Queue: 2 jobs
Job 1
Amino acid sequence: MRQFVVFVGLATLFVVAVGSRFRASDGDRIAAVSRLVSAKLQASLPPALNVAGPLDTLRRELPTRPEDAVRARLAADRRLAGANVTVVGEGTTVRLRGVLPDAKAKRVALSLAENTAGVEQVIDELAVPAE
């Protein structure tokens, strides 16, 4: 909440500065105010949290193994909603197993796997029911 208040304060200062037609000589004052606001913003953050904290958390959540990246891509694709595809990784080789509703869904799954960073080979063990 404090961060939001600081942001609103900065926005208000900007509007006031633009509305009052500040001159170039006012730059020193604006720099001083921005340093003060920056210090207040850093003080409002919890001591254990730094700016890189959220980025580190995000990096830990990103898939690092090729099979995890393929699983994430298959799960995120709307064209494969409800499809049950098992992904098994062996180094840079990924094996896809499961039953898909049609040939188009199979092509989509294979394309996503083949075009995933870190995947060099895709072994297709996907089945499509006969129509």
Job 2
Amino acid sequence: MRVEWGSLVSLDYEILLDSGEQVDSSRAHGPLRLRVGEWTALPGLGEKLVGLHTGEERLIRLAPREAFGDWDINAVLTMRESKLIEGDPLEDGTTLKIESQDGTSAFCRAYRVSEGRLALDFNHPLAGQPLTLFVRITDVVQPT
């Protein structure tokens, strides 16, 4: 079957950084299932699957904007460490779950910028990085 807009696609995959480091794979997390045109986790992937057939393998290159987005300085907040946490100081790169007063939550990484001040980076850890994906289409269900 051929992948079209709206198809439900199952695929095996490996995601690699330019350094060659593998950051995710179907071996680690199972096959990926997505509906082409609706799946937004890697927004550029769906259109690059269109035209492939069940059983086909392909190397796909995603620019940062097609993957986890460009790194955005506006997604970094600075604050006094004492407003965030009590006790031992945080290590650079520590992942935190931040909850707002209205109950919404988000993950960020904390970095020390000066004595007593932290930068909280809410960008995806892979933001700003191009990705190379090796994919193998295992199943395609046509849109109804």
